[in-house]
Amino acid sequence: MTSRVGILAIQGDVEAHARALRSAGAQAVPVLREKDLDGLAALILPGGESTTISKGMDRLALWEPVREFAASGRPVLGTCAGAILLARAVRHHPVPTLGLLDALAVRNAYGTQVDSFAVQVDQGAKEGLEGLRCVFIRAPQLEDLGADVEILAQVEGRPVLVRQANLWAATFHPELTPDPRLHQLLLLPTGPPTQAVKQGVKQGAGSIC
Amino acid sequence: MSNDNEGRQNAETYELKVGLAEMMKGGVIMDVTTPDQAKIAEQSGAVAVMALERVPADIRAEGGVARMCAIQIIEGIQKQVSIPVMAKVRIGHFAEAQVLDALGVDFIDESEVLTPADDTHHIDKAPFRSPFVCGARNVGEALRRIGEGAAMIRTKGEAGSGNIVEAVRHLRQVNGDIRAIQALRVEELATRAKELGAPVDLVRYVHEHGKLPVPNFAAGGIATPADAALCMSLGAEAVFVGSGIFKSEDPESRARACVHATTHWQEPAEVLNASRGLGKAMEGIEMETLDESERLANRGW
Predict the structure, then answer these.
(1) pLDDT tens digit string along A121-154?
(2) Among A34, B184, B221, B271, which is 20 to 30 Å from A162 by CA?
(3) First-to-last CA distance in chain B?
């Protein structure tokens, strides 16, 4: 049966993720309510504006339902703004986050739009992800990674794709390139969630530093 | 994506420009004239702000030549917010655009709201680092702007009027034109391109994909949450709210309400919630009272 994968649809490049999911053989389901999470195999937090999406999460009371979804062990992928939402804390114009991924997200770490760029991942990326082309648009960086966070790919020596049990975070936009590998990986079975994901990284998960 | 711009400008750069437009989908871009207004817009959930010295309603009321915003205002806004900062330049005024590009604004709007600097030519937008958005009333105008390098199209509507009728007309026109192109036989595309005054490769793109090669947003006259929902229902992928927010009685609630309605345009009950307790909307202008020469949408060639 075709896997149903949710895309948080408050704002952002929902359509680009839906296209990528279809080419990876999955069905895309927009998520705006807690009930939309029912029966999903995985969830994507798309690119967009993290302040806008974060405020939408408040308004729709989606923080706890998404944390519970992650704690169920099903895969969650955050790209760019979505990666910021997953992080433990945010530096430079902080926003409230889910506080699930043991990493510090630095917003607009490369600068404004004129500093946006596209490049292949460094040598030494995780098997199956070699040569992945990454599009960075006003992208964040991930710093201060916890021991449970595995670096899958780097660009210029900085982590751009990381994984912590069932949580995946990309600081770039895999949905904007035709390469379906990351969306395909999301559909593979993952291990059980770590204790950290079950409980939130620390008390008061999602705090602002 | 395959179109003319890949040959003239670095394909990668064009991908990044259109990519930022993709990130703004489903959002509201708000006109602001001060860093404080920009902060209110950001706090209300705007996906970007448009820096201006005067909102279109004031430009209309006060008259005079409307130019690019003063640099210190744009810089103040850039310091104040983390969301993308856009700014307008006069049609054809590539030197104003070069100044904004050097300043590193996130998007440049070559806009009919300002007084045109060139009555024949638009800016050649491909060589710039900053992406451009341009207004269009029909698919020919949209494809000409994309051929010049625009990474986002918006309807012109009638800026500063608080009247949605022109934005609706332009959305229906662009989308109707697209459907008409789709219905053509392949050998008819070149003649259609000639009639539209549009690059033939872009007409072929529309024929094949049934949409513009860049995101298509609504602008011009949006004043209420229901206006935003109407534009989204007619196929806009995001909305610009100009004078509608900061010329209303309670900008903060109206800004939040427009954001909410743009996310939930498919749910009338949510648009209803967004429409409650907003205070007075901006004053509107009936189109018949506007002389042809007062219509900003007629600017652009």
Answers:
(1) 999 999 999 999 999 999 999 999 999 999 999 9
(2) A34
(3) 26
Q: What is the pLDDT of residues A29-51, one digit of tens each?
A: 999 999 999 999 999 999 999 99
Q: How many CB atoms lie within 10 A of CB A110?
A: 17
Q: Is B80 on the interface with A (CB under 8 A)?
A: no
> What CA–CA distance (Å, rounded) separates A73 from B210?
39
Q: How many CA atoms lie within 13 A of A39 on its CB side?
A: 10
Distance from CA of B20 to the nearest CA of A (A): 6
In order of B55, B87, B88, the CA distances from B68 in angstroms are: 12, 8, 6
CB pairs under 8 A between A and B: 109
3-class SS of residue B35: helix
Q: Does B16 contact A118 at a Cβ distance shorter than 8 Å?
A: yes
DSSP string of A139-173, one letter each residue: --EEES--TTPEEEEEETTEEEEEEETTEEEESS-
- Catalytic residue flag (residue B88): yes
Alpha helices in chain B (DSSP H): 5-8, 11-23, 35-43, 56-62, 71-80, 94-103, 139-147, 165-182, 189-196, 200-209, 225-233, 243-246, 251-263, 268-275
ipTM: 0.93
A74/chain B closest Cα distance in angstroms: 25
Q: B75 touching A, CB under 8 A? A: no
Chain A residue whose CA is closest to B238: A11
Question: Would the pTM of this model clear 0.90, i.e. be above it?
Answer: yes
Distance from CA of A174 to the nearest CA of B (A): 11
Phi and psi torsions of B262, nearest 5°: -70, -35
Min Cα separation B46/chain A (Å): 6
Q: What is the pLDDT of residues B4-56, one digit of tens each?
A: 444 556 778 999 999 999 999 999 999 999 999 999 999 999 999 999 989 99
A15 vs B12, B15, B25: nearest CB: B25
Number of neighbours of residue B244 by Cβ within 10 angstroms: 31
Task: Give residues 20 to 59 of B whose Cβ lies within 8 Å of A.
Answer: 20, 22-27, 42, 44-48
Q: What is the DSSP letter of A205?
A: T
Interchain CB distance below 8 Å, B129 and A114: yes
- Other Cβ atoms less than 10 A from the Cβ of A22: the count is 15
Q: Give pLDDT, residue A199.
A: 54
A175 is catalytic: yes
B133 and B152 Cβ atoms separated by less than 8 Å? yes
Residue B57's nearest CA partner among B174, B171, B223 is B223
Residue written as token pair 């049990």: A165
